[in-house]
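Quick one: C-alpha cells for this chain, please?
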Amino acid sequence: MSDQRQVEVKTISKGETLPESDGFLGGRLRLRQSIKGYRAGMDAALLASACDAKPTDRVMETGCGPGAVLLSAALRRPLATFTGLELDPTALALAKDNIALNDLGDRVQVQQADISQPFARLKLSPFDAALANPPFFDDPSALRAPKPEKQAAWMAEGGLEAWTTFLLKSVREGGTITVIHRADRLADLLALLGPKAGSFQIRPIHPFADAPAKRVLVRALKTGKAPLQLLPPVILHDRDGGKHTPHADALLRGEAALEWV
C-alpha cells in the first residue's frame, strides 16, 4: 500500500521483534514497528507533511497505528497537541512506546477507539483538525486476502463511509479534515464528506510526472463553502534512476511541507 524504500530497518538485538526505523524526517523520528504487520512508509510521510495545524490546535489522527503520522506531524508542528486513536492493542502499545521514545508525552497521547462507534462515546471535545489514512479497500473480493496481521490496515470494516462519518463528527465547525487515499476513490471521498464539509483542496500524488496519480491528498473544511480547488501535484520519482524528486525528498526529510491555499 505504501512505498517503503525511505524506511531503513535496523534490528535492535538478537530475537528483537520490534525493529527501529530511522527513515522518517531524516532520522529525527525514532519509530518501532511490528515486523510482520503493516509498516508505515511514503503515505504516512506525505500525510504528516500535509498537517497545517496552528499553535494551540488540537489534532486527532484516526487509526494511528504505531504513530508514524502522529509523531511526524507533532515534530513538524511543535506548538500543537495531538491525539491518536487506534483499535488494535498491539499497535496501540507500540504507539505508546514510540511517544516515550521520542519524548513527546507532553503533547501527544493515544487511546483505544473503534471508528465504527459514535465519536461521542469517547467523551472528547471536537478537534481543530483530523488526519486519516483509511484502509484502502472495503471489498474483500477486490484483492487477494492480506495476511491476518495486516488485515486491519488494508480492509476497512464498515467501508470508507464509516471513516468519513467518524471524521466529520470528530472536528468542530470550521475544523479541517485531511485524508490520503487511493486516487480512484476520490469521487467517493468527496461524496461522503460533501454533505457536511466543503472548501475542498486536492493534491494529486503521481509516482512519475508522466504517470497517472495513484494517491490523492484531500483537505476539507467542516461546513466550508468555498469552491473546490485542484492544487499542483506532488511528483514522487524521476524517471532517471527512479530516485525521489528533490521536492519529495524534502517532504520525507521534514525540510518542506505541503502547503494549502
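Residues 1-17, 149-156 have pLDDT under 50 and may be disordered.
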